[in-house]
Design a protein that fits this description.
321 residues, mainly alpha, Cytochrome Bc1 Complex, Chain D, domain 2, 3 domains, three-stranded antiparallel β-sheet, two-stranded antiparallel sheet, 7 strands, elongated
Length: 321
């Protein structure tokens, strides 16, 4: 192996293979070397200007001569956004949800800003865009986009729901009804859902269940027409919407163990109070209420005129349906 690579006359590193392949010691082009030097200078400037090296104790760092930080930049950007929102937020503070809903400009603003609030606070239970969520036992949290409401879907009622929360209640009937009676009444309830109450009432196959339904005073909560009572939050048993799993076995479980009855097998239906949680301001709660109403399931009511807006009432979020 020679000092020179004879074929080219260019010095090599001494690594030559097969007498015709070697590592030359040519210098890189000047433009490349200038670029390397500029990059090194840029690194030094960057380190000096921006936050970089932590101290030896690890509890602080060199903050840079430029005074920049990601938090400061975020706060500046947030300030710009808040300045644009201010005129809307100031108006919302002195308005009720109904008045906000009646103001087309504010209502559109809330529709957009409320989506973020809903995603952060409600979507985990009620699903993205209020479509509800399900587990193996049925509907984990109600759908907010239809017109089926346990407690009512008017704007003020939704506000009450979000502010105060809701907790369903149904007595466990395992001690008051026999297994046969529970089976009979479950079949009757299922028949009302599938074919309507009028047909179920004349269906001889579920006549025994109809008798149990009436004699055990199920009408006291679900009403004589079995359509539920919003004042009590009791379900409509004549439609095809089920708060919990709506098969025969699912209905029997609900009747047997109840809802929030204290039994280990009871169904659980609880919505927390967003006011007591203290996580949201009153304005945020009101925006959330209007957003939920505008998802599509809100029930019409006389909306207050924007100019007549009263002081803000306590706020609310997705109502339990």
């Amino acid at each position: 192996m020679s000092e020179k690579y004879d074929a080219s006359g260019v010095p090599t590193t001494g690594h030559v293979w097969d007498d015709d392949l070697g590592d030359f010691t040519n210098q890189p082009p000047k433009w490349w070397m200038l670029g390397l030097a500029a990059s090194a200078i840029w690194v030094v400037v960057y380190w000096i200007y921006y936050p970089s090296v932590p101290n030896a104790a690890g509890n602080s760092y060199f903050k840079g001569v430029g005074g920049w930080s990601a938090i400061k930049e975020m706060e500046e950007d947030k300030g710009t956004v808040d300045a644009v929102r201010k005129k809307y937020e100031d108006k919302i503070k002195g308005m009720t949800p109904a008045a906000i809903l009646a103001d087309s400009e504010l209502s559109e603003y809330v529709k957009r800003s409320g989506k973020v609030l809903f995603g952060d606070n409600c979507a985990a239970c009620h699903g993205t865009n209020g479509v509800g969520t399900k587990d193996k036992e049925g509907l984990f949290a109600p759908i907010l986009t239809d017109d089926d409401w346990l407690y009512g879907g008017k704007i003020d009622t939704i506000h009450e729901t979000v502010v105060g929360g809701r907790q369903g209640m149904m007595t466990a009937h395992k001690d008051s009804l026999s297994a046969q009676q529970i089976d009979d009444v479950a079949k009757y309830v299922l028949a009302m859902s599938e074919e309507g109450k009028e047909k179920a009432d004349t269906n001889a196959a579920v006549a025994a269940g109809k008798k149990v339904f009436e004699e055990s005073d199920c009408t006291g909560c679900h009403g004589p027409d079995a359509k539920g009572m919003q004042a009590m939050g009791s379900a409509n048993l004549t439609d095809k919407v089920w708060r919990f799993e709506g098969s025969l076995d699912g209905i029997k479980r609900t009747i047997t163990y109840g809802v929030n009855s204290g039994d280990p097998m009871a169904r659980i239906a609880v919505m927390p109070s967003f006011k007591e949680a203290g996580k949201l301001s009153e304005s945020e709660i009101k925006k959330l209420v209007v957003y939920v109403y505008k998802l599509g399931g809100g029930q019409p009511d006389e909306a207050a005129a924007p100019a007549a807006a009263a002081a803000a009432a306590p706020a609310a979020a997705p109502a339990a349906k």
